Amino acid sequence: MEPYPLIFQPILKEKVWGGQTLKNFGKRLPKNTSIGESWELADLPGSIPNGKSVIANGALKGKTLEEAGIQVPLLIKYLDACDNLSVQVHPSEAYAKIHSDAHLKSEAWIILDATPEGTIYVGLTEGTTEIMLREAIEQNTVPHLLHAINVKKGECYYLPSGTCHALGAGVLVAEVQTPSDTTFRIWDWGRSGREMHIEQAIACIDFNSPALHFPEPIPLRSGDFLTTHFVDTPFFSIEQIKSTSNTVLDLFAENAPFILMVIEGHAKIQHQKITDAQRGTTILLPEGIKDATLLMPKDTVVLRIDLPRQQFYA
Fold this sequence. Notes:
Layout: E1 6-9, E2 11-19, E3 35-41, E4 54-55, E5 75-81, E6 87-89, H1 93-98, E7 107-114, E8 119-124, H2 130-139, E9 146-150, E10 156-159, E11 165-167, E12 171-177, E13 184-187, H3 198-204, E14 220-222, E15 225-232, E16 237-243, E17 247-253, E18 258-264, E19 266-271, E20 273-278, E21 282-285, E22 289-296, E23 301-306, H4 309-313
Antiparallel strand pairs: 1-4, 1-21, 2-3, 3-5, 5-12, 6-13, 7-10, 7-12, 8-9, 8-11, 14-15, 15-16, 16-23, 17-22, 18-21, 18-23, 19-20, 19-22
């Protein structure tokens, strides 16, 4: 069968810290429910409940990626933090090597919206020791040991697995991550009833690691597009593309698939027929596509996500 651009049914996740903001990204949310995450592209192991995306268009409609014979080693989602997420750690490489049930979860946050007070917490402050962290957990003063960053729309932050972090209230992000759901909670802002994993989290933290730096990229203009290269990692790269006029973006996936997320505007995909791609739509361009285009009205913004070729053919 000839490959074609794929879109997906979102997988909505209820969270204690979620809300209803994802309505603004085209998600049909159940009423009176706190939705914290919309999984846009997922192909997780069967042990993770509701962790496989279902194709929503074309001949493969109703099939999961696995059933369609397509592999994409990423999990892509939206997160709506109406309250603080737990302070948490994902497995370090050293921890994952000796614990077969733990998997790396390196992730990037692209800030889509934030209140003036919107903050993320990334990494421990210099000089923090294991003893200091344990004392802070007991005394409910953990935020004093975290780097707090006031964020604004359009920024990108990459968090390697093993980084102590939390997404703060009032921040909406697109998240691109490695395909894992292994999370060790270390502190939960006074909330009760959720399991903590303090020993596992501390085992993953490198207390001597240098602080992470987040240089601000410079947008580059080319023709009708303004492109900002956000991040290159061993697992994926991300760039943002903004149309400066009503224009068309040619889509070629001859050598490897890639993903587009429409985060501003209302685009359309043209390939044999026209498919709607409103704000909040995630599109997978399978390998082999040569003649697709994205019709982008002025000020449409998309994220392009690529993986190293070896991720597909290792």
